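for ur thesis appendix - DUF5753 domain-containing protein. copy paste whatever u need, i formatted it the way the template wanted (i think)
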Amino acid sequence: MKPQITHLVEVIDRPNVELQIVPFDIGYYMGQSHDYTVFQYEADPQVSIVYLEKHDGGEYVEGAKKTARYLDLFDQQKAAAIGQERARRFLLDFAASL
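the 3d part is after this line
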């Protein structure tokens, strides 16, 4: 696992990477029990598609009203995440403990 953590430290500064870490000590936060992916495209950022991962497959959600709650959920998760510099220190400390 240490090489994987080290790799995350190496890529955290790339301009196309935004690493979000929500530490365990923050406790429960909205969305931690849902696996989903939000797709937005540069050509039309107002259009979103959400893919919901399920134990027996998945489901695509489309439409502004239906995807809005997942976009809000994503914003809440981003707000719960620690900043990039703290994330780097967290990863370095974690790798050192392995």
